[in-house]
Amino acid sequence: MKPQAPHCQSCQFKDSSLFKQCHLHELEELNESKCFNSYKKGQVIFHEGNRPLGIFCVYGGKVKVSRMGSDGKEQIIRLAKKGDTLGYRSLIDNTKYTASAIALDETEVCFIPASEFNKLVDENVKVSTDLMKMLARALGDTQDKLIHLAMKPVRERLAEALLLLKSTYQEEGKTPFSISISREDLSSIVGTAKETVIRFLSEFKEDGIITTHGSEITILNPEKLVKISSMYD
Questions:
Q1: What residues have CB less than 8 Å from 196, skipping those under 6 apart?
Q2: Which of 17, 32, 148, 217 is the most buried (most CB within 10 A)?
Q3: Does residue 128 have a pLDDT over 60?
Q4: CA of 116: how far to CAs of 33, 50, 63, 74, in Å?
Q5: Is the pLDDT of residue 146 over 70?
Q6: What highest taxon heads this organism's lineage (predicted)?
Q7: 3-state DSSP call for residue 9?
Q8: pLDDT for position 144
Q9: Prediction pTM value
């Protein structure tokens, strides 16, 4: 059965989203114009190279934002969780998507058409200010990632990737943190070969830092991961 579409005014993520400064009538207009879509694991939400027609708000599930390198290998440049907004940079810049968004598991997404979003940004100064702050944070995150890829060895980057997964997807009160993720996706986050990731995961497992069961990884000792990831800071 298809999940029921959330109402923008009562959305559980409203107060932490880009739309937290909206007036009630603006939320009503967003609600009337949006589409609510469900995606299965592996389905593409938007394609690299396509023109943006609006923005996407993740309501449920997990999403990876990735692009294909010149060598044909995928590189994951962002992980998105419930409450996150996707596709806004290309829409603002009026350029084609530079990456694709793909569901990592069963995912629900609200789509807001460009006309409605642009109208909101033009009319609500607080929303446009929050949008600029979001763009600035995204730029800072990209710069940090480039520095880490250039400076940190693979072992340290893998520890950092596991901590990123934990900080992004851990639900409050649920410990230890576990996540099912393919070794291909994990290697795309780290920026290395799958075989290298598997080797270092085995080392982490031997050291009692993680445990694995199939594709599921459970972090047993996040403090050790923090120590490993910060060795070259």
A1: 154, 187
A2: 217
A3: yes
A4: 7, 20, 24, 33
A5: no
A6: Bacteria
A7: helix
A8: 75
A9: 0.87
Q: Phi and psi for 61 in degrees, rounded to 5?
A: 95, -165
First-to-final CA distance of the chain: 48
DSSP β-bridge partners for residue 61:
none
**Is 233:222 a contact under the CB 8 Å cutoff?**
no
Alpha helices in the chain (DSSP H): 24-33, 88-93, 114-123, 125-151, 154-169, 183-190, 194-206, 222-229
- Type of residue numbered 168: T
Which residues have C-beta within 8 Å of that of residue 37, sequence separation ≥ 6?
Answer: 108, 109, 110, 111
Instruction: Read off the amino acid at residue 175.
Output: T
Question: Cα separation of 146 and 157, whole Å?
Answer: 11
> How far is it, in rounded angstroms, from Cα 92 to Cα 78?
18
Pairwise CA distance, residues 202 & 208, whole Å: 10
| Sole residue written with tokens 């480039």 | 146
Compute the radius of gyration of the chain from its Cα atoms.
19
